[in-house]
Amino acid sequence: MTSVDLVVVGAGTAGLTAAAVAAADGLQVLVVEQLAPGGQIATVDKIRNFPGFPDGIGGYELGPLLQQQGADVGVDFLLDTVEGIDPSANGFVVRCAETTLEARAVILAMGSRRRALDVPGEADLEGRGVSHCASCDGHFFRGKTVVVAGGGDSAFDEAEVLAGIAKDVVIVHESAKPRAQRLTVERVSALPNVRILPEARIAAVGGTQEVEHIIVDGPGGRSEEPAAGLFVYVGLIPNSAIVAGLVETDDAGAIIADRDFQTAVPGLFVAGDLRSGARALLASAAGDGASAAAAAVRHIRQIASVGEVAA
Length: 311
Description:
Helices cover 25% and strands 28% of the residues. By secondary structure, it is an alpha/beta fold. Strands 1, 2, 3, 4, 5, 6 and 17 form a seven-stranded mixed beta sheet that branches. Helix 1 (13-24) runs parallel beside helix 2 (59-72), helix 1 runs parallel beside helix 6 (282-310) and helix 4 (153-163) packs parallel to helix 5. Residues 307-311 have low confidence and may be disordered. Residues 5-285 form the FAD/NAD(P)-binding domain. Keywords: Flavoprotein, Oxidoreductase. This is Thioredoxin reductase. Pfam families: Pyr_redox_2.
């Protein structure tokens, strides 16, 4: 069994930041990730609101940079899937698909996954016109019309990417005003091939072998929007299943923590989108990671000093 000071579960912005901060403070840190470094940002074409990059940076670039920063201070990385975490006499046992780890503390940074609309036709046409990643799939819709569902930053950022590829982009969101940052909304709204439908919701996705049209319920009633693609950005679902029953969660499934980012289980911390009350901003995720790392360092040193006194 491999033993380290700290295991960080997840290599998104929060997890990679936490790992780098903890390792720089002298801990032996191992990051476990089942996919590529960066988490959800790996699919983002351009990030405009992360400090230090006034011209923006591709998410596929930022993820490896954060990973390299951790590697430079001694962080180790393991490509594996965490299946469960159990408290133990020495801290925690982290059960992975291919191995088992032991750590004195754990930071949960598994992030979240995209929420589906749960409307007729959506699941049937997933991967055949229904997508959650404009940067990945946008090129399939060059010269075609696409619909974007959602009114937050992700929806408007990805709509901007699609506007440079597709013939027309229709943004459908349920509120009177979008939730996205004002400058982003202004920039996207000014694009000549973007149309915004506020106070509207998608009722169904139409098509046989692929997306052909989107049924929209709006203030004026039901309408049919011809479209070859639907990109869905209507919120996130926290990836908290591996610690179900071990920690406290809110109604959405996000993990509840105290002001030191510690869960109800001593030594088990949480950072990023997975934390209840977290802001859905990349800079906030980095701040979460740094704060959780500092708390984990304090925890490990406290239990080490107690052990020395007892000895």
